[in-house]
């Protein structure tokens, strides 16, 4: 065995590209010609090929990785299929990812831990949109080496000309993507041409085979030792005599006696023990799951990040990032999501979309939202400072996901570029007279009465009656009406989904200030999106957000049409009108559910009764 190659670390690579470019077949070919398929697997594969195969009487090697029954029936890859194998020169871990656009999120998952990407292209079709999209995602996720496998090279009439044309087109794209290397190879995954051995059918190609490149490519520069990072997954305290911090070392190494610092608080301590299931260790390194016992009993919780004092991560509540959007619902600046960074979880929002990245050219395009599979550059603001490293220096502590607060689904995957050093000269001012003192002086429990429902549901009429009665009772109130705020604070906003989100965010901030002043704040807003209403609930204190759903059937609202808006919307004069051109998401568990067809006075009485019971 060549000593140089034997010393190379295991290689993790991903296969990606457009639909039917041959990704699964290529992996099957690599395993088959490396003699890594066991006899019983080969027998099962022969039977599966007869049932689901697409290669006639031959064994369909693609079925080795298309393990799901749904995949075999449809002839596509849906989930990421992981396989491990080794040759005499190197060991490999490979992720076979789906080519369909709707499964781009799965492809991003596979790319997140890969060192090299094999981008497959069907020689008959050339570069496709999904080829460029997958390549762009690989570049964004930190992959620096690409092997361009021009597959099915046996099918074109002039394979040499086709190969050089595709290789040239991709070389231009690869330069703009910033890859360190992008090596083209003409192959036939079905017949094995240039996969593990040179092909007699491509005498015009004198380069290495695909497997030779995988065995010899040096990505050691991509594995430079990173500083010690340990995201705390949980605090382990089985009894009063033991307190440990469980987690997996994200990067670097640690030894007993080393000094550490808690990134968020700056508190210092030393490693007293490194505990594992098999006993204590003197040292541990990246990838090991351990329990760290500190010499000092300092305040640490799940989500904290431990580091070496000399190489601390950055700490900021705002940062610039690149993001791959994965949700069917669009990314809307201003909407509140949950941001998971390592083991930390914090509410956050995209404050601005700087631009969308054109997958074809990697150029920057203006945009107000991101749709599923779009890639953009954004600014993110978290509710508190989070510890991180730029993704280019540490993929483990620079990657995050955004979680939809309503569905708990992963909405986007992001890579942090740098902290935004904004407003560093401001500090939160502590007042001697606070919300509790203001509320006590007014003799009431401040809250937000949030009336939501369709236009014409009767929200404003009921709210006005409620305020009159509260005023008669001596309560201190302020009413915020959606239309009124659009004459001033929100006059720059339209009625797109993104503008609606920002409208409610601004209103919520004003309502929070008024609650802090001790007032009962009455808000009348269509507020069509459940996610924004729940974000307001989280922004306020316990019990301070009272959601009142005025449930009036759409046909009744249209019949009332007090402002003549439905008539214009139905005539196509008002786009994005809620209930007609834009959806309304009704509350699932409001504090009060009012029948919008009953008299307004009866509804107002129910609200007053709720307020009296609340005292």
What top-tier CATH class of the largest domain fits best?
Answer: Alpha Beta
Overall shape: it is flat
The major pleated sheet works out as: 8 strands, antiparallel
What is the residue-averaged pLDDT?
84
Q: Got a strand count? A: 28
- Give me the CATH superfamily of the largest domain: P-loop containing nucleotide triphosphate hydrolases
Strand content: 25-35%
CATH topology of the largest domain: Rossmann fold
Measured on Cα atoms, how large is the radius of gyration? 30 Å
Give the helix tally: 16
Low-confidence stretches: 1-6, 66-79
Question: What's a concise summary of this model?
Answer:
By secondary structure, this protein is an alpha/beta fold. 27% of the residues lie in helices and 28% in strands. Strands 7, 8, 9, 11, 12, 13, 15 and 16 form an eight-stranded antiparallel sheet that branches. Strands 2-3-1-4-5-6 form a six-stranded mixed sheet, with helices on both faces.
Folded structure, characterized:
This protein has 615 residues and is of the alpha/beta class. The protein folds into four domains: 221 residues, 3-Layer(aba) Sandwich (Rossmann fold); 79 residues, Elongation Factor Tu (Ef-tu), domain 3; 106 residues, Beta Barrel (Elongation Factor Tu (Ef-tu), domain 3); 176 residues, P-loop containing nucleotide triphosphate hydrolases (Rossmann fold, 3-Layer(aba) Sandwich). Helix content is 27%, strand content 28%. Strands 7, 8, 9, 11, 12, 13, 15 and 16 form an eight-stranded antiparallel β-sheet that branches. A hairpin with a 2-residue loop joins strand 18 and strand 19. Helix 10 packs across helix 16 and helix 12 runs parallel beside helix 13. The longest helix is centred in the last third of the chain and has 20 residues. The termini are far apart.
């Amino acid at each position: 065995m060549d000593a140089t190659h034997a010393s190379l670390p295991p290689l993790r690579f991903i296969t990606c590209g457009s639909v039917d470019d041959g990704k699964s077949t290529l992996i099957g070919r690599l395993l088959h010609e490396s003699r890594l398929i066991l006899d019983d697997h080969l027998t099962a594969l022969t039977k599966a090929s007869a049932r689901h195969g697409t290669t006639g009487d031959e064994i369909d090697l693609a079925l080795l990785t298309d393990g799901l029954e749904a995949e075999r029936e449809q002839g596509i890859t849906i989930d990421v299929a992981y396989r491990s194998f080794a040759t005499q020169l190197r060991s490999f871990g490979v992720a076979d990812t789906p080519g369909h656009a709707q499964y781009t999120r799965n492809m991003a998952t596979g790319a997140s831990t890969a060192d090299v990407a094999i981008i497959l292209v069907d020689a008959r079709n050339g570069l496709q949109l999904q080829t460029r999209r997958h390549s762009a995602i690989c570049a964004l996720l930190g992959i620096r080496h690409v092997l361009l496998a021009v597959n099915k090279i046996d099918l074109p009439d002039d394979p040499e000309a086709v190969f050089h044309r595709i290789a040239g087109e991709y070389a231009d794209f690869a330069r703009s993507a910033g890859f360190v290397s992008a090596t083209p190879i003409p192959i036939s995954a079905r017949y094995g041409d240039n996969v593990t051995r040179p092909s007699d059918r491509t005498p015009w190609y004198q380069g290495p085979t695909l497997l030779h490149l995988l065995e010899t490519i040096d990505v050691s520069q991509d594995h430079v030792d990173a500083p010690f990072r340990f995201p705390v997954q949980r605090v382990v305290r089985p009894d009063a005599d033991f307190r440990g911090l469980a987690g997996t070392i994200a990067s670097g190494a640690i030894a007993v006696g080393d000094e550490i610092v808690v990134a968020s608080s700056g508190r210092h301590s030393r490693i007293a023990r490194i505990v594992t299931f098999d006993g204590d260790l003197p040292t541990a390194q990246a990838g090991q799951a351990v329990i760290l016992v500190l010499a000092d009993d300092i305040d640490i919780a799940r989500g904290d990040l431990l580091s070496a004092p000399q190489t601390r991560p950055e700490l900021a509540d705002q940062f610039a990032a690149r993001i791959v959007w994965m949700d069917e619902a669009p990314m809307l600046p201003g909407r509140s999501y949950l941001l998971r960074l390592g083991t930390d979880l914090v509410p956050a929002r995209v404050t601005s979309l700087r631009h969308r990245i054109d997958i074809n050219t990697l150029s920057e395009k203006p945009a107000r939202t991101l749709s599923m599979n779009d890639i953009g550059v954004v600014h993110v603001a978290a509710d508190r400072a989070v510890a991180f490293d730029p993704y280019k220096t540490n993929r483990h502590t620079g990657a995050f996901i955004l979680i939809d607060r309503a569905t708990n689904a992963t909405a986007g995957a992001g890579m942090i570029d740098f902290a935004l050093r904004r407003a560093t000269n401001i500090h939160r001012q502590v007042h001697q007279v606070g919300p509790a003192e203001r509320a006590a002086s007014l003799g009431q429990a401040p809250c937000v009465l949030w009336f939501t429902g369709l236009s014409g549901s009767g929200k404003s009429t009921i709210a006005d009656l409620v305020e009159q009665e509260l005023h008669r009772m001596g309560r201190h109130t302020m009413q915020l009406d959606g239309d009124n705020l659009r004459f001033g604070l929100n006059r720059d906003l339209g009625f797109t989904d993104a503008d609606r989100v920002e409208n409610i965010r601004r209103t919520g901030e004003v309502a929070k200030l008024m609650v802090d002043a001790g007032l009962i704040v009455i808000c009348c807003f269509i507020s069509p999106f459940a996610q924004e209403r729940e974000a307001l609930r989280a922004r306020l204190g316990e019990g301070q957000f009272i959601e009142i759903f005025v449930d009036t059937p759409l046909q009744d609202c249209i019949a009332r049409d007090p402002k003549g808006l439905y008539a214009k919307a139905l005539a196509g004069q008002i786009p994005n009108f809620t209930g007609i051109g834009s959806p309304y998401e009704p509350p699932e568990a409001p504090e009060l559910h009012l029948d919008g067809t009953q008299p307004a006075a009866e509804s107002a009485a129910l609200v007053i009764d709720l307020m009296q019971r609340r005292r």
